[in-house]
Structures are given as C-alpha cells and as structure tokens.
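Quick question, first post here. What does this chain look like in 3D?
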Amino acid sequence: MILNINHYVGVDMTFNVLELSADSNHFCITLNAIMRGREFGYFVPGQPLNSSPTVKKYEYKCPYQFAEQIEIMRHLHPHCQTAGDSELLDPKNREWRTAAQRAMQYKGTAGCWGGHFKEAIVISTISRRCYHLIRSIIATRKTLFLKVTGFMFRGFCGCKDEGFMYTMLRKWDQGDISPNDVNEQLKQEKALTRPVTECDTLRTKNAELERQVADLMEEVKDLKAKLDEALEMNARPAQTYNDDMYDFSPNHEVCV
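> Answer (accepted):
Ran it through. Tokens below.
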C-alpha cells in the first residue's frame, strides 16, 4: 500500500503519535497498534476483523522502539488530557493497562507484561511537565544519533516524588547532569523517602539484638580469661611458715 504521510496532521490526540512516523510502513504499523488498543473496528485484507498475528509465549519482541512505546501508551491513558501539569497518571488503571497491552501486541500474562514494560509504564504515566522534558531529551539524543532505551530511565521506577523527578529531568535536559548521575540520585532519593515497613522494623531490631549478642559474647570471653587466671593462681602451692626458717645449727660451718 502506498500512503503519502508528508502532510498528515492528527485531529485527535489519540492519533497525534502518527506524526512521528518516519515512513508509510511505520505509519501503518503504529496506526494498527492504536486501533487494537482502542478496540476500534478495522479490516486488514486477508485477515479476520481485528485479528493480529499470534505471538508465541516467551518469544515476544515489541515492534516499537522505546520512544514509540511511551507515546502510544500515554495517549491511550484515559486521564492523559485531564490530569494536572504536575500530576502523575495512574499506572494501575486496568482499562489503560489492557489497552496498552493490546497495542503492544503482547499475548503473555498481565504480570509478565508489567515486568517487560516496566520503564515504559512509568515514563508514559509521568506528569505532563516531566513528559515534555523527556520528549526533549529523546529528541536531542536522536539528533546526536544516540540510542534511546528504557534502561536510561530505570531510576524513575518506584519514585513518587514528582518535584524531584522534574528537577532531575530539567538538569538532564540542560546538560548539567549525566543519565547515570540522574539514576543514581533517584536511587538515593527513593532510599531516603521509602516508607518504613514492619519488615524494615524487624530487620533493624534483629540487627540491634545481634550487636548486643556480639557484645555479650565479648564480655563472656573476658570474664572467662579472668576466671582461668584466678584458678591458675589458686592452683599454685601456698607458701608456709617453715619455708622462711633457716638452720644455724653447729653442724654447719660458718665463715667469719
């Protein structure tokens, strides 16, 4: 199929991602993903309605690059347009997760899908102002012919501090900090702000008890050494009065 996409403009936010298509083939692939995700009726010659090639378990390979994944998944989210500028989207929204899974042509379990697209889920549901910075970062890397992968954004997984993420992304976008430093600082921030769980409390208490046991064992060792020393002293023969007597009888010659 020949399709001229040079002057394509999306009139609905759902299809704006198509403007990023490099060629007609990529345009059709992305459009196919959106149609599946939204469950729109469509027809592919030679295939049943809304059908797609079967993807074997454990042999899945996503047809989209990371930048395309987050664009498609974000525009499928029902709150993409209504959320505030600094508001994180709900990554646990079932309707959205189901639509995103269909769009990515993933046929495995929901749990495995979440693990496979962990970074894409987090980045596609980040706040609007953070997402604008991410798009700028991706555009800059593409200009420099640098690869864009989900691993670059691994530190954002599990982070809930939107303000801190925005600060890190702004520094990254301005070139004031490297991607590795961003991820390292996000890791440290999560460690400081992570809520203390019952398991954490028990670990702390166990560590304190282990320290006390070590101190007591050291004290027992010192007391045992002192006891052994005292027993050794007691085992020596006692000095008697006769030991201090000297014989000055006439049988002994005395030189004057």
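Residues 8 and 19 are 7 Å apart (CA to CA).
DSSP finds nine helices and no strands in the chain.
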